[in-house]
Amino acid sequence: MSQSHQGKIPANALLGDVLPSPASTYIDSASHLFVSLSELVKENISYHPEIGQHLNTLSDTDKVNLDSLLNGQTVDEHFVSTLVCLIEAAIKPQHQHVRICLSDTDSYSYSALIGGNIENTEINPAMGLRGVARFASNEYQHSFELECKVIAALRDKGVDVEIVVPFVRSLSDAALIIDHLAIQRLPRGLNGLKVLYCCDAPAAVLMADRLLQYFDGLVVNTSNLTQLTLGVDQQNESLNSLFNPEHDAVLMLISQAVKSANNANKPCVVYCQNLAQYPKVKANLAELDQIQVLAAI
Fold it and tell me: Is residue 208 part of a domain?
C-alpha cells in the first residue's frame, strides 16, 4: 500500500509492510515487514494445519479438495514450503526487520478451513484457546511445530527472522513459550534470534514492564486490544458501532505499551488496520517516541 492510500501517517513513525497486504501494493519507504501466519494460512493454505493428523476423519469432498491443494506433497511439506516461498517473495531489500507472528486465529476461524471439524466448539472463541495456550495444548502442538519449521527454514536460508508471540496473558505464558521455542530449535538469543510478544489484551500492556524481561520488544495489535478492552465482539455486526479504537481507554493502553517498550529500550510496533480512518489514533501515535507503525488499509 502506498502512503497516498493511507492518508497522513505520523511523521515520527517507521512505516512497515504487512503480509498478506489488504492492498495490492506496499509502502515505498517501509523499513520492516510484519507477517501474519494466521492470514497466510486462511488465504493461501486453506486447510487446517492439523489436518495431516486427522485424515481419516475427512469427508470425501474434503479429501478431494485437499489432494488438489497438496499436488503430491504431504501436508507438512506443502504447509512449510508454501509459507516459506510466500514470505521469501515478500521480503524487500529495504526491510531491516522481518517479523513473523505465530497464529492468533481463534477456533471459529479455524473451523471454516478444510478439515475444520477438528476444532472443538467454543462458546466465546475470541477469548478462547489462542496464542500460547493453544501452542502448548496437546491437540494443537503439531500446528505450532509446523509454524516453527517455517521460521527455522527461513533462518536456515539466511533470513534474520524475528518471532512475534500472540496472546501472551501472563508471566507464566512468557516463560512457557520461550521454553517451547527452544525445544523447536528456536532458542531466544541464539544467532541473534529475537522474540517479541503481542499486546492483544489489556493484561499484556499492564504487565509490559515485567513481560519485556522475557522478550525483545512488543507489538500492539490494536484490533484485538480494542475488542478485549471494550468487550465488543468484532464478529457481531450489531455491535459494529461500539468497536472504536479511538476510545480513550484504548488510546491510554497504546500509550502505556509504547512507553514501557521505550523504558526498556526495546522496539514497539503498533499495528492498526484502517489507520487512516482513525485521526485520534494517528494524533496519539504522533505524540509518542520511537514507534514503528503498521497501517493496513
Answer: yes
Q: Is 3 part of a structural domain of the chain? A: no
What CATH number is attached to the domain comprising 47? Answer: 3.20.20.60
Q: Which domain holds residue 164?
A: 16-264
Q: Is 19 helix (H, G, I), strand (E, B) or coil?
A: strand
* pLDDT digits 0-9 by tens, 128-144: 899 999 999 999 999 99
Query: Nearest-CA neighbor of 167 among 227, 115, 114, 121?
Result: 227
Provide the domain count of the chain: 1
Give the Cα separation of 71 and 60 in Å (integer).
17
As a whole number of angstroms, the distance between CA 20 and CA 146 comes to 19
Give residue 37's Cα distance to chain centre: 6
Residue with cell 490494536: 222
- pTM exceeds 0.85, yes or no: yes
pLDDT in tens, 63-84: 999 999 999 999 999 999 999 9
